[in-house]
Amino acid sequence: MSWVCGACRKGNYSPAPPCAFCGQGYEAPKPEWFSRMVIVPASEAEREAVRVAQRALRLTPTGEMDEPTRASLRGTQRLYGLPPTGILDEGTAIVLDGLRPYQVDQEEKPCRPY
Fold it and tell me: Does 87 lie in the same domain as 55?
């Protein structure tokens, strides 16, 4: 995973601090699928972000912030030392992005015959 320095914003492909450029620590970049905090999804983009999070949590991707989703988010937040709010915020999205299986947010496509 590529990390971005929180101070100088230069990238590095190692999660180990300190930054080789400025000596400060690293922070992970915001995932592409996450645009803003989601308490209750109000748009299709927010519902899609919730579905991506649900897939990373190994839940059924409904796109709704139901109780199983909130409980799984709280558990993940506790595990990673984040405030256990049950809300899909940027810190939680960064953690979930690291937990996602490869291409989890892409739809399954039927095999093409050769």
Answer: yes
Question: Are 33 and 56 spatial neighbours (Cβ–Cβ below 8 Å)?
Answer: no
Three-state SS at 69: helix
Give all strands (DSSP E) within the chain, no chain letters.
3-5, 11-12, 26-27
User: To which residue do tokens 């109000």 refer?
Assistant: 42
Instruction: Give the Cα separation of 82 and 26 in Å (integer).
Output: 17
CA distance 78 to 46: 23
**Strand pairing category for 11-12 and 3-5:** antiparallel
For tokens 């709280």, the residue is 74
Cβ pair 25, 17 in contact under 8 A: yes
pLDDT digits (tens, 9 = 90+) for 5-38: 555 545 444 444 455 556 565 566 788 888 888 9
pTM of the predicted model over 0.90: no
Does residue 81 share a domain with residue 57?
Answer: yes
Q: Does residue 87 sit within a domain?
A: yes
